[in-house]
């Protein structure tokens, strides 16, 4: 996928690529602060980087859960991040009309896991000509993602990648089956969504839990089995984040993780 992004740096480094940013756009200053730090680190370790931030969260536990600071306001912030640092950006879309809207501001359209079988949504994303990343549903086998990829390529868009984000394990846990990564690489580049794989959804409180203490473990394993990219949500203070704070990586811990992952990548090449 990254070969189609003209504004991505370190494309020829042979390193994994990184998708990282806050779960949701909370404001311009925070988005720029996070992007600036991650750009600094990815330049240091020669890692191709795509900034991620949701312009709107549609899949929330409760009706009073935070969803957006404003759709167009958030998209404008994503555009500013991309222009400020000359990097590609990505956001998730939930409705067919969001595809054309978000495509005016970002470089990669992400399809959420719960919606990856929605044919009309995938075709709408593909028809924008943007890169499309498909989150594997927690309920889907790796082999079934071949058909989701085909929906994009059959719409005359080869710019597609798959994001692994764990499989439902009971009602409140997720497990990554690393056997699926080489399987899905037969269909498209594979990105391991480390932080969402460590969510603990469907808690009785109505607030999703998580295991950020296992981020390094899961990420190292993903690189070791050949994941093309890593997806990490990060925030300066996860405890105050407006979405997914329980499973995010604190921003000041990112450098140590990227350094270790780069070493793992070098070891398997």
UniProtKB/TrEMBL annotation:
Query: Cross-referenced PANTHER family, in alphabetical order?
Result: PHOSPHO-2-DEHYDRO-3-DEOXYHEPTONATE ALDOLASE
Say which family it is in.
Belongs to the KdsA family.
Q: What is this protein called?
A: 3-deoxy-8-phosphooctulonate synthase
The metabolic or biological pathway listed in the UniProt record of this protein is: Carbohydrate biosynthesis; 3-deoxy-D-manno-octulosonate biosynthesis; 3-deoxy-D-manno-octulosonate from D-ribulose 5-phosphate: step 2/3; Bacterial outer membrane biogenesis; lipopolysaccharide biosynthesis
Q: What is the reaction catalyzed?
A: D-arabinose 5-phosphate + phosphoenolpyruvate + H2O = 3-deoxy-alpha-D-manno-2-octulosonate-8-phosphate + phosphate
Q: Which organism is it from?
A: Chryseobacterium hagamense
What Gene3D superfamilies does the annotation carry? Answer: Aldolase class I
Which key words tag this protein in UniProt?
Answer: Cytoplasm, Transferase
Q: Which GO terms describe its biological process?
A: lipopolysaccharide biosynthetic process
**GO CC annotation, single:** cytoplasm
Give the source's domain of life in one word. Answer: Bacteria
Q: Where is the DAHP synthetase I/KDSA domain?
A: 11-267
Which InterPro entries did the record assign? Aldolase_TIM, DAHP1/KDSA, KDO8P_synthase
Q: Does the keyword Transferase apply?
A: yes
Annotated EC: 2.5.1.55
């Amino acid at each position: 996928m990254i070969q189609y992004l003209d504004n991505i740096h370190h494309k020829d480094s042979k390193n994994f690529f990184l998708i990282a940013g806050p779960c949701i756009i909370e404001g311009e200053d925070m988005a720029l602060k996070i992007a600036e730090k991650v750009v600094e680190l990815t330049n240091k370790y020669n890692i191709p980087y795509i900034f991620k931030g949701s312009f709107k969260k549609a899949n929330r536990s409760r009706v009073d859960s935070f969803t957006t600071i404003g759709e167009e306001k958030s998209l404008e912030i994503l555009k500013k991040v991309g222009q400020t640092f000359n990097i590609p950006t990505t956001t998730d879309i939930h409705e067919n009309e969001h595809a054309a809207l978000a495509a005016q501001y970002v470089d990669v359209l992400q399809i959420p896991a719960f919606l990856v079988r929605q044919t009309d949504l995938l075709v709408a994303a593909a028809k924008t000509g943007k890169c499309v990343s498909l989150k594997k549903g927690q309920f889907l086998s790796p082999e079934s993602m071949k058909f989701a990829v085909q929906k994009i390529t059959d719409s005359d868009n080869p710019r597609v990648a798959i994001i692994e984000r764990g499989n439902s394990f009971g009602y409140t846990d997720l497990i990554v089956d690393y056997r699926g990564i080489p399987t899905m690489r037969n269909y498209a580049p594979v990105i391991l969504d480390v932080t969402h794989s460590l969510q603990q959804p469907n808690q009785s409180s109505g607030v999703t839990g998580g295991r950020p203490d296992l981020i390094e473990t899961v990420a190292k394993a993903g690189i070791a089995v050949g994941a093309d990219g890593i997806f990490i949500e990060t925030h300066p203070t996860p405890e105050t984040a407006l979405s997914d704070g329980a499973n995010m990586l604190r921003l000041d811990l990112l450098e140590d993780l990227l350094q270790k992952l780069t070493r793992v990548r070098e070891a398997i090449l």
